[in-house]
Every structure is written in structure tokens, then in C-alpha cells.
Amino acid sequence: MEQIDILVVGGGVAGLAAAARFAADGASVIVADRAPPQPVSAEADGADLRTTAFLHPAVETFRKAGAWDGMGPDAEALWVMRILDAGGRRNRARETADFEAAEMGDRPFGWNVPNVAARRALTARLAELGAPLRAPAGLETLTLRDDAAFARLSDGSLIRAALVVGADGRDSGVRTLAGIGVRRWRYGQKALVFAVAHPRPHGGVSTEIHRSGGPFTLVPMPDRDGRHMSSIVWMERTAEADRLMALDEAAFEAALNERSLDVLGRLEVIGRKQAWPIVGQIADRMAARRVALMAEAVHVIPPIGAQGLNMSLADLEDLAQRVADARAQGRDIGGREVVEGYQRRRWPETAARVAGVDALNRAARAEAPIVRDLRRFGLAVTHRLPFARRMAMKIGMGAG
Ligand SMILES: Cc1cc2nc3c(=O)[nH]c(=O)nc-3n(C[C@H](O)[C@H](O)[C@H](O)COP(=O)(O)OP(=O)(O)OC[C@H]3O[C@@H](n4cnc5c(N)ncnc54)[C@H](O)[C@@H]3O)c2cc1C
Fold first, then answer.
1. Is residue 248 located within the same domain as residue 375?
2. Same domain, 284 and 351
3. Are residues 67 and 150 in the same domain?
4. What is the pTM of this model?
5. What is the CATH number of the domain that holds 311?
6. Does residue 307's CB lie within 6 angstroms of at least one atom of ligand 1?
7. Among 71, 84, 78, residue whose Cα is nearest residue 397
8. Distance from Cα 255 to the centre of ligand 1, integer Å
9. Can you tell me which atom of ligand 1 is nearest the CA of 10?
10. CATH of the domain at 264
């Protein structure tokens, strides 16, 4: 039996980040995933084509884990969030609001990083820390006792850990084995995700266009082969998303360019496209005896406002600090004080963010003219009142 401080179950970006953050702090860590390691290049079959806009607190967590420098070359700074409302009768912007990072200081809002690049940097860092991802090695059994947690993995490993971190995604086995319930709902939407090249530079501006069906967002990426690039997240009702995915290349590009309102010139799809169903989910609790759940094992939200993985890294930072304090004071790192403190601090904040993003998504996909007019009014007011504008930017940057 292997005796360690922390077992991280799940080797998605959240689980890899958790393992690196804890190991960099000096804990003995095993991170295990039931699936073989995912590709770390966007060209590989089955690669995750999403990008993530990491806000400052998330970047700070990566820095503490010693993994941010490895992501730097693939990261593009986000300086302006531009929101266009095109919800009128004609397909053109009837309201434009720019939220500029410069108004808040001299730093960008955050950095957009391809998920494959985040995974590559974290995997390299874990190897450096002597805690490489164990995969395929799924969690099979978990016994939670007052003195320790005991786990068996599908590769035959038997592990005794002071703390088990469940970062095993929306169908979390740790959550089930710890007896924690979950509430899930559907939005009837999908997000199409792909990269585009465009003739005009993005200038660090991320543009979100609202019409109906869901937002259409262009997020800056570094230039590639001398071409200006952005990643697209295009949310639509499921039937429309399926129709778009079935179109041939020329018809898809025509629909894409109609939806993008020519903000960066004619868009050309580069590489493959993926469609992600949009669901909402929240676990009843984030902690049980010797267990802390994090990331999608707790919360799943629509991909608007760059919140999902940023919330996950906020879970991690809170937990890592509690574990570090317990270690420094010679207390049990998986004891009640640590996991209950984590539950008390993170759950209400998580529930509030899940509810906020849910409301935003319902407004963003609205078909009814009255709701679209209200949405435009809300945007105009938020943008024109300096107090409301700064408050929105502060929340958008990951604070409060
Ligand atoms: C289209 C789209 C765009 C997004 N954009 C953003 C953005 O800009 N900003 C942002 O912050 N977030 C964004 N998100 C959210 C973000 O991508 C997700 O929160 C994140 O990828 C989920 O990571 P995770 O590690 O929690 O889960 P997963 O990636 O699902 O990882 C869970 C892992 O656990 C493993 N596992 C499951 N069961 C077991 C078991 N029993 N034993 C061992 N391993 C197990 C799985 O194999 C998997 O590898 C977006 C999401 C979508 C859909």
C-alpha cells in the first residue's frame, strides 16, 4: 500500500493543476485518470479544441504551481471585452459596449490559452515534480475513515491518503462514493468550438455578439504562420447547432460570416470543429469525510463570461491554502477543519456564480423581443454608468 498526503482523482486540466499546486507546496501526491492521457497537440485525433480565458487569480495559481511559464508562449493577452447586441430586426449591432482593462490598471483582463497547451505545461511540470499522471488508472473503490482514506485504482494500486480531491468531472465517481448528491439541468443548446484566421488583427479585443440562441464569441489567439487567429465559441439551440455542424465547408463559412458581423473581416475555419452540449450542474456539497470535490465534479455552467475553469482554480486555491496552513501548524491536512472550512467558504460562492451565469445565459439566448430589448438596456446602463461598468469588470476579472 502506498501512503501519501493527497490523492487527486481526475487528470483533466483542473486535476492536473491541483496535483501540481499541491506537489509544488511539498505534499506527496498521486494524480490518476481512468482514461489514457489526452493529446497535448491540437492536431492530434481527439484533442480538446477549446481555449480558456484565464483571469488573474487563475494565473496566480498556475504561477504558484510553477506551470505558468510553460503556457506563456501560447497565451494571448485580453485587453478589451467588446459586447455587441444584434438582437434587433436587422442583423447588425444596435448597441456596442467596450470594457477596457486599461481603466482598471496596467494589466490585461487575462490570457487566452488553448486547453492542449495548458495540459502540456502541467504535464511537464508534474514530471519535474516527480508526480506524473497515472493513467489509465480509474478509481474503483474508496473507503473513508476518520484516520485516512483508502482507494483502489484499476491499475491495481492501493493507496492510503490523508485527503482525496475529486476532480473527476461531471460524472464524478468520488462524489458518488462519498454519498454527495447533484442537481443537473439542460439548456437545449450546444457550443461549437473551432479556430479561425482573419485578415484584420484582433488587437487583444475579445468580441461577444448577442442575437438569439446564445452568444457568439471571438477570443484572441497568437498569430500562427503569419496569420491573425482567434478561437470561436458559438452557442446555438441544439437543432440549429446540429444543422450548422452538418453543413459543408462553404455553407458553414457563409453562416459563420453572417453571424460574425464582419468584425475582423472574412473568417476562415482552420482545423476541425467540435460541438459541446451545454448543461448546468451543482453538487449538494463540496466536502465529505476526507474528501474535497472541485471543478466540474461540483459545478458545470454554460461557457459564458470565462467562468468555468476559473472557478475551478479558485476552488483549488482555497483548498491549497487550507492544506498549507494545516501542514504549517502540524494539523491533519484531510481533517474536518480543512474540508468543512472549504465547504463553508466555497459552496455559497459557487452557488451564487452558477445562478448568475444561468441568468446571463437565459438572457443571451432569448428569442422574445421584450427580453432582447431588456438585455440591450441592461448592457447600455452597465456600460454607461462608470460605477456599474467598473463593478462588472471587477467581477469579470475574477474578483468578488
Ligand atoms: C465550449 C466550452 C468553452 C469553455 N471555455 C471556458 C473559458 O473560456 N474559461 C473557463 O474558465 N472555462 C471554460 N470552459 C469550462 C472548462 O473547459 C471546463 O470547466 C473544464 O475543461 C473542465 O475540466 P475538469 O478538469 O473539471 O473536467 P474534465 O476535463 O471532464 O476532467 C475530468 C477527468 O476525470 C477523469 N475521470 C472521471 N471519472 C474518473 C474515475 N472514476 N477515476 C479516475 N479518473 C476519472 C476523466 O477521464 C477526465 O479526464 C468551457 C467549457 C466549454 C464546454
1. yes
2. yes
3. yes
4. 0.92
5. 3.50.50.60
6. yes
7. 78
8. 29
9. 34
10. 3.30.9.10
Which atom belonging to ligand 1 lies closest to the Cα atom of 274? 1
278 lines ligand 1 (CB under 6 A): no
Residues 49 and 137 in one domain: yes
- Which atom of ligand 1 is least distant from the CA of 58? 11
| Rounded Cα gap, residues 197 and 195, in angstroms | 7
280 lines ligand 1 (CB under 6 A): no
Angle at alpha carbon of residue 327, lines to 325 and 331, rounded to 5°? 95
Q: Is the pLDDT of residue 199 over 90?
A: yes
pLDDT at 91: 75
347 and 260 housed in the same domain = no
Name the burial class of residue 135, with classes exposed (0-12), middle (13-18) and buried (19+) by CB atoms within 10 angstroms of its CB: middle
Ligand 1 pocket test, candidate residues 296, 310, 319, most atoms within 8 A of CB = 296
Indicate which residue's Cα is closest to atom 53 of ligand 1: 276
Residues 321 and 272 placed together within one structural domain of the fold: no
pLDDT at 165 over 70: yes
The DSSP bridge partners found for residue 6 are 29, 163
Find, among 278, 271, 273, the residue nearest to 244 by Cα: 273
What are the respective helix, strand and coil percentages of the chain, to the nearest 5?
A: 40, 30, 30
pLDDT tens per residue, range 94-107: 778 899 998 878 89
Please work out whether the CB of residue 361 comes within 6 Å of at least one atom of ligand 1: no
Domain shared by 160 and 62, yes or no: yes
Tally of domains within the chain: 2
* 191 within ligand 1 shell (Cβ under 6 A): yes
| Residue of 8, 34, 119 with the most ligand 1 atoms within 8 Å of its CB, for mutation | 34
Q: What is the pLDDT of residues 354-390, one digit of tens each?
A: 999 888 888 777 666 666 666 666 666 666 666 665 6
Report residue 11 as a C-alpha cell.
487528470
Residue 39 in grid coordinates: 493529446
Q: Is the C-beta atom of 15 inside 6 A of ligand 1?
A: yes
296 CB within 6 A, ligand 1: yes
**306 within ligand 1 shell (Cβ under 6 A):** yes
Tell which residue, 26, 3, 46, 2, has the closest CA to residue 323: 26
- The answer on 84 and 51 residing in a single domain is no
Regarding the beta carbon of 33 and ligand 1, being less than 6 Å apart is answered yes
pLDDT in tens, 7-21: 999 999 999 999 999
Residue numbers of the domain that contains 107: 75-112+188-279+368-396
